Structure formats: C-alpha cells, structure tokens
Batch of 4 targets.
Target 1
Amino acid sequence: MDLIEILHPDAVRNTQSVGSKKRLFQDLAAMSAQNYGISPEVAVEALLERENLGPTGVGRGVALPHARLENLNRIVGCFIKLDRPIDFDAVDRQPVDLVFALFAPLSSGVEHLKALALVSRTLRDPGVCLKLRNNEDPGTLLAILLEGPASVAA
C-alpha cells in the first residue's frame, strides 16, 4: 500500500485559521465529501466519536484522526497543514499543525491498520515534517507526502 492509493491530489490543503479540533474535523469532512463523496455529517460524527475514545494527536505536532464508515469501499485520506497549530490533546501536549485523516470501510480490519502505520511512519520522519512545515503549496505538500521518508544509503 502506498499513499498515492489513499490520497487524492485535491485532498491536500494548507489552511489559514482553524480555531478548534471540531472546526478542523468539519474542514476534513468537507474535503472528504468533495473528493470521495463521503457525507460530511457522517464524517464529522465518526471523527468525533473516535476522538472521544482517545486523542489521535501522536506527538511532535502531528495528528492522525481516523474513522471507519459504512458505504465506503476503500481507504481514503485527507491532509491539512495548519498555519497556526491548535490544541489537540496530543500525547506530548504539543499543539498540532500537521493532520492526516483516514477514512476506512467498516470491514477494512488489517488494511486500516496498515494504512495507519504507513501514514504514521511517513509523519514520524523529522525530515518529512520539516519539509511539510516549510512549504505552502498543496502540490508541493502532496509531493513531499508521496516521497515519504528519505531512504538511508548503504
């Protein structure tokens, strides 16, 4: 599985101001509706429901909100880079500015976990995060995400 299979090019944005986690989820839901035909109301509700189980802020300014949805036939994602970090109840208590949301079919099981691992591995790389934070253009952000972590030369 590669990010290119999950992330539509128009589902990558740089956002000016989002004041709260709920507003961020509304923006992610609007993106998922526009790019994948997901009901925005269903997406927001599912993201909030999952977040109530435990925060998806994984640390170092990164959040990976995710939800399983009915009537979805494949795993899809949306990425938002925030100009101003917001509180996300992250494990390290740091505000979040890089957000990759995943939406998966209810029956996805292991594939959902593989997608989460792929996104987590990508955004755990300090070099990837630095490049994302230093760029504004959605096309460039997409290219950085698809490039992924730098491989180590032998």
Note: The beta strands are 7-15, 57-59, 62-63, 66-69, 76-86, 96-105.
Target 2
Amino acid sequence: MNEPERAMLLSVHPRFATAILAGSKTVEVRRQRVAAPPGTLVLLYATAPTMALVGTARIAAVHVASPKEVWSAHRTQTGISRREYDTYMRGATQASGLTLEAPHSFDEPVTLSALRAAGAFHPPQSYRYMKGDELLQVAVAGPVVGTTLREELGDLVSA
C-alpha cells in the first residue's frame, strides 16, 4: 500500500541526521517492526540540542528480522558500533533496518518553535506517519520545507 500523501516523521540524534544527510549512514535501525513501503518520504527531525527538521530522504527498503540478522545484513551502513547497537537493541525480539536513499538537506532547518508556531506539533519518540493537515502545517512552518513537500507530494500541500 503506497500512499504518496503520507510521510514518515523520523526522530534521530543530530549526529545520525548529519550522517544520513551526508550519505555515510544509509540504514537507520529501529527496535520495532516498521511497515513503510519503498518510496515513502522521510522527514528527518534532529533531536536535542538541534530540535529541528533538517532534511528528507526516501525509504528504499525495510528489512524486518531479529536484531542479530539486521546487524549481520547492515552493520557497515548503520553508522554505529556493535556495542551501541547491542545496547539499543537489548531486550528487543524484532528489529527493522530502514534503507534510506536520496537524502536532501534543508538550507534552513525548521526549528521546533517554528513548527509549534504553525500549530500543535509533537516530535515522536521514534517515528510516526503524517499526512494531510499535519504536512500542510509543516509546509507553512518552513518555506524551504514547503517547497520540498510540494515537489515530493504535489497538490496535497499546495493550499
């Protein structure tokens, strides 16, 4: 089910956002099953101290398996050490490796305060899906983001 009007808002530590946007980190790992079709637009939210939308990427593939299998398949693409991975995955029975492509940095990040000034905005602990009015709110909060969303998602955010 590919929903072009839906985007994933993904919270990541600033160092990982930087690595994703630089193309050196191409797989983001999560402790739960992620069901997003290839082509899904990802809005990258860098957590504290940055606290801003910093860019986009696209999901190329999602690999759901045991934490051991996800590490074996993607370790060189995750941008983290085995120790960090094991600490993060401790207790998890399932993991997802999101292969990301086409990273795009915003010239001007959209700060949390700007996002909240445009309406109620709560960055997720891990990720969540956004569509419709929420995407329009993000487009209003940051003109550069709005341009990108209009290019990526079309008329949905052209209000």
Note: The mean pLDDT is 90.
Target 3
Amino acid sequence: MSKPSKERGLTLVYTGDGKGKTTAAIGLAVRAVGRGFKVLIIQFIKSPQRTYGEKIVFDKLGIGIHQMGIGFTWLKTPEEHREALRTAWAYAKECIMKGEHDLIILDEINNALAISTFPIDDVLPLSDVLGVIRNRPQGMHLVLTGRNAQPEVVEIADLVTEMNPVKHYYGEGVSAVMGIEM
C-alpha cells in the first residue's frame, strides 16, 4: 500500500476489547459533516429492530446510516446472519466503489470478519474487503470498527487505534445505558 495521504484517502481502524470504537467513528462522522464531507455509515451487526442514539440523531441531521445486521450472533441462525452479512457487504462495496461519499464507516465489520462459529468467507470474503480498501476511489476515507481486526486489515490501515478496557461498570452488573451505549 502506498504512503498515507489526504489525497489518496485514509483507512482508519478502531478495534480492541474496550468500549468506544463506534463512538470514535461517530465522532469522526460528526467532525467530517461539519467540514462539508458527505458521510455514510453502514452497521454490519446492529439491527434496525433496536433503536440506537446515533441512528436517531443522524436521521435528524440527514446523515446516511444503515443498520444492516440482525443483532448478536447467538440470537439468530447462522444462515440468517450469513444472508445479512452478504447483503451488507454487497451494499457497502457498491457504495464505496460508486465514490459518492468522502467518508464511509463500516461499523462492526471487524467483528463480522472475525466470526468463527459459522462460515462467512463466502459471503464476506476478507480478500474482497482488502481489495475494496486498496482500490476504493481516490480521496475516500474509510473507517472500520469492531473487535478482532484481522491482521491483514491492520497491515494496510493508515491508523489503528486499539481500545483497551481498564475498568467497566458491566463488571458491577450495570447493563447497557441509554445514551451511553445505545
């Protein structure tokens, strides 16, 4: 991959076991829109069946955000997840290659690429994702979020930030907090 440059577009990865990966990407989206960028967010795991704060505000602001997943992998059948991932990747790839956006966030794609409980490579091939990253339109920035970023993704990224959990209230029995996690 060539040297990082604003003109080429950057690939940013937010990964790790700590909280804040999607939040960092959402903050970046807000900053980019403030600078006149056209932004698109595609969420690979989150389902439109749940309400998330970022979806509410981005709909109000007219920022494209598409929840293409069906939720946690243990709540649906592998085939349901495979079909959702196939659809999400086809849509993401089409949007990226059209080149109509300055910044596209592929939220939780790293989680999806790391699924090992059922086969996903035929519906979300790592080689295809890497090819799209490398061959995206000039000047487009991409953000990939989620735990367990693949080594090949880390290698071609221009920036990789790993969220490291130090302390979390989940350990004290506090579940997801509206306005903080959702």
Note: The chain has a mean pLDDT of 92.
Target 4
Amino acid sequence: MDEQTEQDVVDLLTAQHEQITTLLGQLKSGHDDKQDVFNELVRLLAVHESAEEEIVHPVAERAQFGADQIVEPRLAEENEAKHALAELYDLGVDHPDFDSKLTEFADAVAAHAAHEEAEEFTLLRRQYSVNQLTHMAGSVRAAEAVAPTRPHPHAGESALANLIGGPPLALFDRTRDAVRDWSRSQER
C-alpha cells in the first residue's frame, strides 16, 4: 500500500493545512510568481473547505452529543473565509489593498486551522477507528476531485449545499481554469 492509501483523514487535512500555511507565507513574503501562488492557494482552499463541509463536519457532528459546539463555529469561520477569499480574488494580487487584506485573511485561516486541529480532529481521533478515519480520507479525496476550485460564498456551507451546488460550480470553475491556463500558455 502507498502512503496516500494509509493516510487517515486527520493526517490528510493537517498536511493540507501545512500546504495552505506555506502558500500564505509565500504570498506574504512577495513570491515572484504571486499570481500563480495565489491561484494555487484559492484552488487548495476551495477544494479543502468543500470536502470538509461535505464529509468531515457531518461525521464530526455525529461523533458525540455536543459536537455541534465544535462544528458550528468552524462552519461560521469557513463561511467568513469564503467571503474574504472571494474579496481577495476579486481585488487581484496587484491591488494596493491586497497585501493588508491577505494578512488579515492569513491570521483568520491560521486560527481556524488551529481550532480544527485542537478540537474537531481530536474529536475524530477519539470517536472513530483508524480504519474509519482512513476510509474518510478516501471520501475526502473523492469529494475534492469534484469540488469547485474557487470560493462560492453564496452557495452555502452545508453538506447538502456542497452536494447540490458543488458539481456544476466545479465544472464551471475547472473550465475557467483550463481556459486561463491555455491563455497563459499562448502568451509565453
């Protein structure tokens, strides 16, 4: 078995949190390919949050009585993050306010990830077997494969909203990504 098949959902999501932190650090430090790094951050955050909303949060809510006190604040944070990320996306990396808004966004994302790791991920490890968590990682990967690649803050943050709205939005986003990438390849 390869490492990816053995990886459980907590390890998978924690690794993605680390990738997100790295990309935010590159953006804040003025990386040469700022637009490309931002595009990768937007894609990673969009698929990561969609999969959490569709798979992880509903499972965590079923883990034990009172888990909604852990999950509900995470959903609210994710909704705020979608709006902030959409605003950053609309501004563009060259806008004079981009860097200051990115700093605020990065702080909120770091706090959100810390809450998830300390509360929700701990709950998952306590309530579910290694086999169940490994199976969940596969479900998260499948959800990410068909998730939108941009934030859609008005689509909602529930599992149902992601299941209904996610596939058409993902198709639209992935088509836009392909056109953007093709256009850039023609400019070079």
Note: Residues 34-63 form the longest helix (30 residues).
